[in-house]
């Protein structure tokens, strides 16, 4: 990542550390400070700034609305961890594990309210449109999470259903982040919508890359257990395509591992990965992923903005595409 982008992330983190979420009762506010110090790429607020800088230079004036998207994102993570009964988030205890479920729910609710408060902290843009778009995005994220939970009980999930789910759960917030930056810069609605579509396409590609890295990443670079999705039977693009394209013998093996209650984790990961290799799932996923990335860049090309203005956004998008963790 470039020095310029790292400096923007530093500014985002500095501003987050300055926000007074509240003090008493301590159990309500400490979990908010805790989850926001666990790290993360800060790519959503960064996209807000980059979307703004396509049209204007003074992005430091919109730090608070940019950070509102990060607060909302972490609110969804806090509640998702409860639903998933996840013990760890970025290698640390999740909020509901460190405190308890009720505290995690309430602290998340405060974060949602604070996201609105920060979103309103700007004098630029059509605030009615900004709030309406935020509401639509937030509902979409919830719909995506519900679909993801529905998939756990479904014996068959189609490729189209999966792509719709990841668009709602992950990609729409990336699209909204870019659109928010454009709206705050008071550019045309057409430009703002094109940036939203660019963000959504790149966001779907980003999630497909996550699916791929979970199986094929370098363990040391990935930072978490490779094969976690295989162990938990998560219906990713890789598994969905494997079940669709497998021959009878391969499907029988996959169904054996999917139905196994007790098993050696390493054996399961190695066996399922070998089936993916036989079918060519890695190449299929890379092709689908690149189709979305290329579609996004094609939209970005249609924006009548100087190449210099686009440079930082393109650099960051390429960073996401080339990541190994």
What can you tell me about this protein's structure?
- A two-stranded antiparallel ribbon has the order 1-2.
- It is an all-alpha fold and 325 residues long.
- It folds into 2 domains: 1-124, Farnesyl Diphosphate Synthase (Orthogonal Bundle), CATH 1.10.600; 127-325, Farnesyl Diphosphate Synthase (Orthogonal Bundle), CATH 1.10.600.10.
- Helix 2 crosses helix 6 (101-119), helix 8 (159-184) packs across helix 9 and helix 12 (237-245) packs across helix 15 (281-302).
- It contains 16 helices and 2 strands.
- The chain has helices at 3-18, 26-36, 43-53, 63-84, 95-98, 101-119, 127-152, 159-184, 189-216, 219-222, 228-231, 237-245, 248-259, 265-279, 281-302, 307-322; strands at residues 88-89, 92-93.
- A hairpin with a 2-residue loop joins strand 1 and strand 2 (92-93).
List keywords for this structure.
325 residues, Farnesyl Diphosphate Synthase, two-stranded antiparallel ribbon, single chain, 2 domains, mainly alpha, 75% helix
Proportion in helices: over 70%
What radius of gyration results from the CA coordinates?
20 Å
Structural class based on helices, strands and sheet pairing:
mainly alpha
What is the C-level CATH assignment of the largest domain? Mainly Alpha
CATH architecture label of the largest domain: Orthogonal Bundle
> What distance lies between the first and last C-alpha atoms, to the nearest angstrom?
14 Å
Catalogue the unreliable spans.
none
Q: Write the CATH fold name of the largest domain.
A: Farnesyl Diphosphate Synthase
């Amino acid at each position: 990542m470039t020095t310029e982008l790292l400096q923007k992330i530093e500014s985002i983190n500095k501003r987050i550390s300055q926000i007074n979420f509240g003090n008493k009762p301590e159990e309500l506010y400490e979990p908010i400070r805790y989850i926001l110090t666990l790290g993360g790429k800060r790519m959503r607020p960064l996209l807000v700034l980059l979307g703004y800088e396509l049209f204007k230079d003074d992005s430091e004036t919109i730090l608070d609305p940019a950070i509102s998207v990060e607060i909302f994102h972490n609110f969804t993570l806090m509640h998702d961890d409860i639903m998933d009964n996840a013990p760890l988030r970025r290698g640390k205890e999740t909020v509901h594990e460190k405190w308890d479920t009720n505290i995690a729910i309430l602290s998340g609710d405060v974060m949602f309210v604070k996201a609105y408060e920060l979103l309103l902290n700007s004098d630029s843009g059509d605030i009615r449109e900004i709030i309406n778009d935020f509401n639509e995005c937030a509902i979409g994220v919830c719909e995506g999470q519900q679909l993801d939970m529905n998939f756990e009980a479904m014996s068959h999930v189609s490729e189209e259903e999966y792509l719709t789910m990841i668009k709602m759960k992950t990609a729409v917030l990336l699209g909204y982040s870019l659109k928010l930056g454009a709206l705050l810069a008071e550019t045309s609605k057409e430009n703002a919508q094109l940036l939203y579509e660019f963000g959504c396409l790149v966001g779907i590609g980003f999630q497909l890359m996550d699916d791929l890295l979970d199986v094929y990443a370098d363990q040391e670079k990935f930072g978490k257990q490779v094969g976690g999705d295989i162990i938990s039977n998560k219906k990713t693009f890789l598994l969905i395509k494997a079940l669709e394209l497998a021959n009878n013998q391969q499907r029988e093996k996959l169904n054996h591992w999917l139905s196994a209650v007790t098993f050696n984790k390493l054996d399961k990961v190695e066996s399922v990965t070998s089936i993916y290799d036989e079918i060519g799932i890695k190449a299929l996923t890379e092709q689908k992923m690149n189709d979305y990335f290329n579609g996004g860049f094609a939209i970005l090309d249609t924006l009548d903005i100087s190449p210099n203005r686009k440079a930082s956004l393109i650099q960051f998008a390429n960073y996401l595409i080339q990541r190994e963790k």
